[in-house]
Specification:
Structural class: alpha+beta
Shape: elongated
Radius of gyration: 19 Å
Number of helices: 6
Largest sheet: 4 strands, antiparallel
Strand order of the largest sheet: 4-5-6-7
Number of strands: 7
Strand content: 25-35%
Mean pLDDT: 78
Order of helices and strands: EEEEEHEEHHHHH
Distance between the termini: 48 Å
Amino acid sequence: GAVTGNLAVVFNDHRKGLVEAGCRLCRTHLHLAVSRDGGASWRLMGAIDEELTTGVRIHYPTVMQVGRQLSVAYTRFYLSSDLGLNSPDQGVRVAHLTLQQRNTDLVLRVGRETVTQKALEAMVDDFIRDTPIAKLKKFSEHRWPVLTAALSESFELESLGGADFLKKKVRLARYMKQKIRENLIANGTDSSEGGR
């Protein structure tokens, strides 16, 4: 039968033969994507490992779900003789990711720097989709700190620094304001510019 429900995939998010920032012979950008519709559409949620060093190999992930947690095991090594012989940063690694209260909303517990803009935008998209129009109308009139507090109440962001982490994300603030306006217009509700 057809696959339905929530799916997660971990993959190397680049073309074969990546040449980026001097990273020759690399296999990197190990990213996580989630589908809520049996694989018909996917959302990039974040990066698990992103090192850009010539000859780095970050690959062969295996994903297992236990309760509300995804565990991702993968291998990491270097092709270059120096790092390949001497670096302790090689071998099998395991990253633990937490499934949040809303189906497959994910916040990666592997450091702030690994949470991508796309992952944060996906969080905002989910928040807007699940928020009643009347409440969105009120949010359109609020400044960014109020919205970060609302996001922090809806998603587990403590490991990233909570609302304080989001307050510094100016690009995300613009994205959220724009998406709220678009949603209100699509629902026939006038939107104002609101706070910034």
